[in-house]
User: Fold this.
Amino acid sequence: MSSPNDKSHIKLEKLQKKNAEVADESVESTRRMFAYVAKSNEAGISTARHLNEQSEQLNRVEKVNDHIHDDMQEADEKLKSMQNCFARCMQALKVVSANDGSDNAWQNKDDETVVINQPQSANADRQERGVVRQPPKSGYIKRITNDAREDEMEENLGQVSSMMGNLREMAVNMGSELDRQNEQIDRINAKGDANSSQIDEANQLAKNILKK
Assistant:
């Protein structure tokens, strides 16, 4: 027959075993959490990089529209000069020269700010370079055994907290960058429409001159 001390010892062993199982499960849970957030952080950095590349492409498209506009301005001046030379031969031609608002797309050209820097937070930039912000040393869990497993849980949760902060900052920055790019796309579309209208008018003017 077992003594009360033996029973107490058995209960203690069971309790310790249960605590160890819970600790192991907790460590594994923080590992999975860390892996998931780390993957999300990498995806955020990759998305920010793609946004930067898209921004550069939009800048190139807008510059092309600006060059087209400048070329059409020069062509328009030359066509009008030719028109003046043949003015006597074109008395029957009614030329309506009015500002149709096509230049409105370029009104704020000098005030435009081109953003080509990658829209990611400073913390994300440090992470991409391999510099990770050090998380707090403790305070995420209530320590019981004070062993290596609890140390790992503290470290994992600290890294998770740090990367969650990075993700929040990247989300805000990418949202702002998307808004800016949407505005730029609208501006590019307006310039494209204005260029198309200007080209049509120049073609029509050239045809009228040649008819005479």
